[in-house]
């Protein structure tokens, strides 16, 4: 009568839209950041992290 009881509580199904949204936002933000780093305006900027990592594709 007392103690922990087992209930069928759905966790993954209600959280699925938020998980999918979070993954898609993370992917799109990473793509935008990569596009901005490799743009012509910031390609030769000394603050560009791609220059310090050795990615000199220009």
Question: What report would you give on this structure?
Answer:
With 58 residues, the chain is mostly helical. The protein has one domain (11-53). Helices cover 52% and strands 0% of the residues. The chain has 2 helices and no strands. The chain has helices spanning 12-37, 49-52. It is elongated and about 65 Å long. 0% of the residues are buried.
| Poorly predicted residue ranges | none
Number of helical stretches of at least 4 residues? 2
Structural category is: mainly alpha
- Strand-residue proportion: under 5%
Secondary-structure element pattern, one letter each: HH
Shape: elongated
Percent helix range? 40-55%
E-strand count: 0
Distance between the termini: 71 Å
Task: Give the count of structural domains.
Answer: 1
What Rg, in angstroms, do the CA atoms define? 22 Å
Mean pLDDT: 85
Sheet with most strands: none
In short:
With 58 residues, the chain is mainly alpha-helical.
Protein traits:
52% helix, 0% strand, mainly alpha, 58 residues
What are the SSEs and their pairings?
Layout: H1 12-37, H2 49-52
């Amino acid at each position: 009568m007392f103690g922990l009881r087992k209930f069928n509580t759905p966790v993954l199904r209600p959280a699925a839209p938020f998980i999918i949204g979070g993954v898609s936002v993370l992917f799109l933000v990473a793509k935008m950041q990569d596009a901005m780093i490799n743009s012509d305006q910031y390609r030769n900027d000394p603050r560009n992290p791609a220059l310090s990592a050795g990615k000199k594709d220009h």
